């Protein structure tokens, strides 16, 4: 079951565009190169236009906050280890899967760091998100492997179906479902995803990710989402009817230890308070948001 987000519209005229900030200089450089729009003001106008179109269809606070340009994957603490893994296994098919990829900006940035385009897979439930990504990056002539479907749909992913053993490369451009990916994915990125579901579906999603993850040491599931010091249902007094489920660090680690043998994985989870760029002030005007950065890595 998904959470209920009965959210208000942000105040008219508000904008949290980050690429004017010195802290996002490297992100600005990436988007200039990727879009081939090298003038900062023209790029800003282009991204503002695209952000408006995305928000009209996907009314999530992270879209309003321009989180799709902030480099969630490459700024994750695990990313240096991901690059080392790839460098040591250049002859193999190292599949990088972004679950809930939205406009696929993060996978494009992973490609810019040297990942093979044909070994990237963006998973989304709505084709329009992928289409808006092509419009944003002006790169429909350079397609990215994408799969449209809901991992909770048994026609898309059947956890009971036997593993299809194959040593050949998987053509990620022509997947019919996600079953062929079992035990074949080196890295699974799950940013701003788990907190969209209740406790039971978070656990189910974690189990499905575990089924997809390669047995190779160093393979990882990782991401960022909202967390709490105490696990449990969350709500906002000033937004009746809005609720979601947050894990604490302890309950999050325990969930993964119930899925994997704790001796076979390294589980890292850390809570950080939001700053001015990650606060979503129109929803949380005073109380800090706690963001959980985490990873589960095979030993």
TrEMBL record:
It comes from the Eukaryota. It comes from Austropuccinia psidii MF-1. GO terms for molecular function: transferase activity. Pathway: Secondary metabolite biosynthesis. This is Methyltransferase domain-containing protein. Keywords: S-adenosyl-L-methionine, Transferase. Belongs to the class I-like SAM-binding methyltransferase superfamily.
């Amino acid at each position: 079951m998904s959470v209920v987000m009965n959210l208000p519209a942000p105040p008219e005229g508000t904008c949290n565009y980050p690429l004017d900030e010195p802290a996002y200089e490297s992100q600005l450089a990436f988007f200039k190169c990727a879009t081939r729009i090298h003038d900062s003001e023209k790029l800003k106008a282009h991204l503002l236009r695209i952000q408006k179109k995305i928000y009209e269809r996907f009314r999530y606070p992270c879209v309003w906050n321009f989180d799709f340009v902030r480099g969630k994957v490459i700024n994750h603490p695990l990313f240096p280890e991901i690059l080392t893994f790839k460098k040591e296994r250049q002859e193999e098919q190292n599949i990088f899967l972004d679950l809930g990829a939205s406009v696929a900006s993060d996978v494009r940035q992973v490609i810019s760091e040297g990942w093979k385009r044909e070994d990237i897979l963006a998973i989304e439930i709505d084709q329009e998100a992928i289409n808006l990504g092509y419009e944003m990056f002006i790169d429909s002539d350079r397609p990215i492997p994408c799969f449209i479907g809901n991992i909770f749909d048994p026609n898309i992913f059947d956890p009971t179906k036997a593993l299809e053993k194959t040593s050949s490369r998987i053509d990620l451009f022509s997947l019919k479902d996600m079953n062929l990916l079992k035990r074949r994915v080196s890295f699974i990125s799950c940013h701003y995803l788990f907190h969209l579901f209740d406790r039971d579906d978070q656990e189910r999603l974690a189990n499905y990710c575990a089924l997809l993850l390669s047995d190779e040491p160093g393979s990882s599931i990782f991401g960022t989402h909202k967390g709490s010091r105490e696990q449990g249902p969350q709500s906002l007094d000033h937004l009746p009817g809005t609720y979601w489920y947050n894990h604490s660090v302890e309950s999050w680690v325990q969930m993964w230890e119930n899925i994997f043998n704790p001796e076979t994985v390294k589980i890292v989870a850390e809570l950080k308070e939001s700053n001015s760029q990650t606060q979503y002030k129109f929803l949380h005007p005073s109380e800090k948001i706690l963001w959980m950065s985490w990873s589960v890595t095979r030993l």
